[in-house]
Specification:
There is one protein chain. The chain is 37% helix and 38% strand. By secondary structure, it is α+β, with helices and mostly antiparallel strands. The chain has a single domain, classed as Roll (Nuclear Transport Factor 2, Chain: A), CATH 3.10.450. It has a 7-stranded antiparallel beta sheet, sandwiched between helices. The longest helix is centred in the first third of the chain and has 23 residues. The radius of gyration is 17 Å and the shape is globular.
C-alpha cells in the first residue's frame, strides 16, 4: 500500500514538473537549434507590426514557434514569425486576459527603455559565446527598465539581466 502511494507521489511530482515546463514554454536545445532565425531577427521582423515588447521561442501544439508581442497605436498584438524564413506568419490582436496584462506591463517597461529589446538580446548573446537567446522579457526593477534574457546551449540554460536604459 505504501509503495503505491510513493509511486503515485513521484508520478505527481514529475507530471507537475512537465506542466510547469510546458507553461514556461521550455524549448530543448535540439529543437531550438533547428531554428534558422535568431530571436534578434524575429524581433526585427515583428517591428513592421509595432514596437517589439517581448519575444520568445516556445512549443505550441508540439511545434517550435517564435512569438513576439508588439505595441502600437494603443493596441497590442502577438506576432508569430516563421523561425525558418524570418517572415511574419501571423498577427493576432491581444484583447484580454493574462496576455493583455503581460503586454501592458512589458509595454510600460519598454516605454522607459532607451535601448531596443533586439539590441539587449544581441548584447546578451555577444557576452555569452556559444549561447542562443530563447526569450527576452522586459520589466521594471526599481523603476528602471531591464530585460530578462534566457540563453541556451547544449549544456543548459541561464538567464541574464540586460539594462534597457
Amino acid at each position: 500500500m505504501n509503495t503505491k502511494f510513493v509511486i503515485s507521489a513521484y508520478a505527481g511530482v514529475f507530471l507537475m514538473a512537465g506542466v510547469a515546463m510546458a507553461e514556461e514554454g521550455g524549448v530543448e536545445w535540439k529543437t531550438l537549434s533547428t531554428a534558422k532565425v535568431s530571436l534578434q531577427k524575429g524581433l526585427a521582423a515583428a517591428q513592421q507590426k509595432g514596437k517589439p515588447i517581448s519575444g520568445k521561442f516556445e512549443m505550441e501544439h508540439g511545434k517550435l514557434q517564435l512569438s513576439t508581442y508588439t505595441a502600437g497605436k494603443g493596441k497590442y498584438s502577438e506576432v508569430i514569425v516563421d523561425h525558418k524564413s524570418g517572415k511574419v506568419a501571423k498577427t493576432e490582436e491581444i484583447k484580454e486576459g493574462d496576455d493583455l496584462k503581460h503586454a501592458q506591463a512589458q509595454s510600460e517597461a519598454m516605454a522607459k527603455a532607451k535601448k531596443s529589446l533586439a539590441a539587449a538580446v544581441a548584447h546578451a548573446v555577444v557576452q555569452n559565446k556559444g549561447y542562443r537567446a530563447v526569450s527576452a522579457m522586459p520589466s521594471l526593477e526599481n523603476g528602471a527598465p531591464v530585460a530578462a534574457v534566457v540563453l541556451e546551449n547544449a549544456s543548459g540554460s541561464k538567464t541574464v539581466s540586460e539594462k534597457l536604459n
